[in-house]
Every structure is written in C-alpha cells, then in structure tokens.
Specification:
This protein is an alpha+beta fold. The protein folds into two domains: 119 residues, Ubiquitin-like (UB roll); 294 residues, Creatine Kinase, Chain A, domain 2, CATH 3.30.590.10. Strands 7, 8, 9, 10, 11, 12, 13 and 14 form an eight-stranded mixed sheet that branches. Strands 1, 2, 3, 4, 5 and 6 form a six-stranded mixed sheet that branches. Strand 5 and strand 6 form a beta hairpin. The longest helix is centred in the middle third of the chain and has 21 residues. The termini are far apart. The N terminus is likely disordered. Keywords: ATP-binding, Ligase, Magnesium, Nitrogen fixation, Nucleotide-binding. InterPro entries: Gln_synt_N (IPR008147), Gln_synt_N_sf (IPR036651), Gln_synth/guanido_kin_cat_dom (IPR014746), Gln_synth_cat_dom (IPR008146), Gln_synth_gly_rich_site (IPR027303). This is Glutamine synthetase. One of its GO terms (biological process) is polyamine catabolic process. Belongs to the glutamine synthetase family.
Length: 479
Amino acid sequence: MPSKKANPAPATGTVLKAAAAQPTLTSLRGVADWREAAAWLRARGIEDIECITPDLAGVPRGKMMPSSKFTSNTSLALPSAIYRHTISGEYPEETASFRYEPRDSDLKLVPDLSTLSVVPWETDPTAQVICDIVDTDGNRVSYTPRNVLRNVMKLYSDRGWKPVVAPEIEFYLVAKNDDPDYPLHPPKGRSGRSILGGQGYSIAGINEFDELIDDIYHFSEKQGLEIDTLIHEEGPAQLEINLRHGDPIELADQVFMFKRTIREAALKHGIYATFMAKPMQGQAGSAMHIHQSVVDIETGQNIFSNPDGSASKEFFHFIGGMQAYVPKTLAMMAPYVNSYRRLTPDMSAPVNNAWGYDNRTTAFRVPVSDPNARRVENRLPSSDANPYLALAASLGCGMIGIMNAIQPSPPTEDSANEGDIDLPRGLLEAISLLESDPTLAEVFSPEFIGLYAGVKRGEFETFMQVISPWEREFLLLNV
C-alpha cells in the first residue's frame, strides 16, 4: 500500500519521475486468469474472439482468431505503424519530433482478461477482449492510449490516491448518408417524422427510438456495461448516456466499447450514430463531460473535502491545474478540425477556462453535492475524443495543479460562454500549445507528445486538401 502522505509540491517544470514508471499488468475486474478465460469461453460456446486495442483516435485495431488459438498461448502482434497514421489512414511527413520506426517492428498485444466479454451483435458466438501494448521485451509502450492513462494514474497511486471519474457521452442519430458532400439530417422515429431540436430531457424524444434504445441496453447488459441514465439532449435526435462513476481505466474501456455498441445498435435499425463533435450546422455539438474526484486509497475518503466538510486545498489546486493546463492539452480533448466548431459562443459549449459552482456555462463546473461526493466536471472534451487520452489529459492537468499548488481564479457566477474565446481556436494552435510546455512531456512522455502532434498535423494537411461548400458558395464568383 502506498503511503497516503502527500509529497511536497515540486516547482513548476520539475520532472515528474513517476510518469515514466511502468506499472504491472493486473486484472481489475471480471475474468482473472487464462484458466478462467478458457472456462468462460467454453461455457458460452464462443467460436471466435476479437483482440482489440484503441489507436490514437480511439478506433479499435487488432486481430480476430478462433477461441482455441486464443487460449493456446499464441503470440499476438501489430505493426507499430498503426500509431503513426491519421484518421484517414495516411502517413504524415517526418519532422524533428515525429519519426517512423525504420523497421516498422512489432508491438505485442497483451489481453487484459478482465475485459473479456461477448460481442452481442454478431450472429456467430463471438467474444472480445481489450489488449495492452508492450514492446518485444515486455515493456509498456509509452505512447499508446491505455498506457498514457495508466502512467497518469500512477502519479496518483504514488501518493496513495485513486481518481474516480464518471463520463457523460453525447451523440447524434442521423439518417444514412452515403455522400459526404451532403449535410446530415436527423432520422425518422416511430412517428414517421424527423425529430426537431429543442427536445432537451424530452421523454417523447427518447420514445421516438424505443426499439433502438432497447437494443443499446440489451447489447450493453450482455457486455457488462453499466448505463446510469439516458436522456435526450438539445439537438435533433441527440442523446446522452451517463456512466456510473469508477476507475478511470475501466470507464475509458466502457466508453471505448459503448461507442462501438451504439454504432452497431443504430446500424441494426438502418441509421447512423455519430460521435462527431459538430455533425450538423446550427445545432449544438456533442460533448464528453467528465466528472472527477480523488479518494484516499487507505481511508476511502474524498481528498477534495476536509474532515469538517469544507473544500480542501487539493480541490482548489486541482481546479487551478485544470485552468492552467487544460487549454494546453485541448488537442487531447478536442482532437479534430471539426472539434473546434463545437467550442463556439452561444452553442451550449464552454469557450473559456472559467470555473464556478453549479454553473454550466463554465469549462469546469462544481456540481451541488455533499462533501463525500465533491467533484469537478470538465465540460470541454468533445465526444469525438479518445476516452483514454481525454481522461489522461484532464486528470494529468489536475495533478500538475496539486503538485505545484496552483491557485485557481475566483469562481464565476456570470454566463461565461459568451463573448471572447479564451481557448485555442483550431487544431494547429492547440497542437503548438501541447508541445510548448516541458511539464506536459514529463507527464505524458515525450514520445507520445511528438507522435500525437505529428499525426494531428498530418490530419490537418489532409483536411486542407478538401474544398468546402462555403468556399464554392462565397468565393467561386465573388473573388
């Protein structure tokens, strides 16, 4: 058990040695070892198994094989290049900080057996398991998303603490669209009409898609995924799923699997589910709000509250760290050009680094709660973010605040999502900020920062090759 005594806060820029440490592979839940896994597969008549892992975008990558081969100590490997291509599958040019591994050597998949679950939408009995990534010597690869989050969590465990998170994921249901040149539209529900916007918390809006939602619940239950609540959001056919609070790795795994589950359930009903941050012009974007608290491992007490119930210094320093560093890590929470279309004034999204008590216009909201549940909601991440990287960024910034005793600004009671924008306005600016502070490289690893920045710049260059309808509308005959 790590000591629960906090270490003295280092000066800003001091190397955070713990970030480079390699935590051991352990199962947190579910199947614990290969013997249990083999019995689990036999009991369910599983024929095939998908060994998957998230790439930098959060897209599942991996291999599929017969279950008999999976349990026969087969070595699984993927080329390292899967972490060096863009969302469109292209490979950016090398830069000083972004290099290709000359041999494109193998990285090994190590199944986390605690994540073993069925794939309920497959017709043949199929299972899936999330894998960690190690090199040929068995060392964790620092730039892979699950390991980035694990290393941030170790900063907490070294102090005897454990973060607790609860993500809220928004997404749109849209009619099928096989031509990317045409705008997206909401699908028709059971009434035969397309649902309109302005349906926040509408039960009728949810009931329009009763059968699809039943499938989401059914698929989720089969996989052991826990939905806390489901609501209709402001946009047309925009829904939000709230997950129960828990361990950050487990919750990132759940978001990773939920995205796949919701897409599959929607396809079963002939529509799309999209986690784009801003899929429809003039409508609200989709966020992935993250509720965060920290507990003492030994006592189970929330360190954000003092024994008398008042807010602790760690609580305020956590907020101060997020205010100072979340704008610099925004590229990990808003990872695409489209993400910044959501972060605009008057569209129910924060455009600042303000914080406040029960103030939904701020970037960092402190919900009303009793002292044991005191937490901070980060409202900046968009639903297109890789959940492992968004959680790592948010928790990492809070920890930097604690370690450096960063004081927050006074809380605001005003509307903070109007007027000037205090955040990066685009992907290139956000990437430059991510690279600018040495402390971030110490927390997330220089390898990750260089790799991520290179891939994101490559995606921007791909985007710049596309001529938009706006350009054809206003430039074609006017300039």
